[in-house]
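Hi F.,

I've been meaning to write this up properly since the lab meeting, where we talked about keeping a consistent format for the predictions we share between groups. The idea is simple: the sequence comes first, exactly as it goes in, then the structure tokens exactly as they come out, then a line or two of notes. No screenshots and no reformatting. I'm using this chain as the first example so we have something concrete to point to.
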Amino acid sequence: MILFLSIVVFLLAAAVVVVFAMLGELASRVPAPDDDGRRRIESIDTANTGHRPSYWPAGLTHVADQEYALVLVLSSTCSSCETIAGQVSKMLDRGPANLAVIVACPARERGEHFAAVHGIDRHDALFIDEDGVWVKGEFAVDTSPAALLFRNGTLQSALLFWDLPAVLNAVGSLSTADREVA
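Output, unedited:
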């Protein structure tokens, strides 16, 4: 009986250690707030920068023709994307030709619903990416919200972000610096 209780206590202690290790790993993936309280923008180091896609899906074909284009990747399962989607719709209403949106979703209907709820579906610059197949396959981006900066159809930079104005400012800085180098 004592041996049995010892084994149970040992297994419970091991389970507690594993749970805390998992929580620590998850916490390490969430960026710390900056000094002003907002979370920072992070580069997606695994992205296939320098890659030009083998094809452009409908809704994104104009990106290949732009000197600079910004494609925002939102997910129908991401709570941060919910907040950002409403802001994106207002930007699309102003009609910048060099902006597009990808909604990654587990099922097309869910992506269409997400786009409709946030008013993104009113615009042609939208691609519903079922299971994120295109964005993962072409650029190795499997996280959201993400900002993909293209130059002449080639991926220049991929950023993970939590604040739309901050990423727009950062992308503006990237494209300006890139133009100065060119």
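Notes:
The chain has five helices and six strands.
The two ends are 76 Å apart (CA to CA).

If this format works for you, I'll send the rest the same way.

G.
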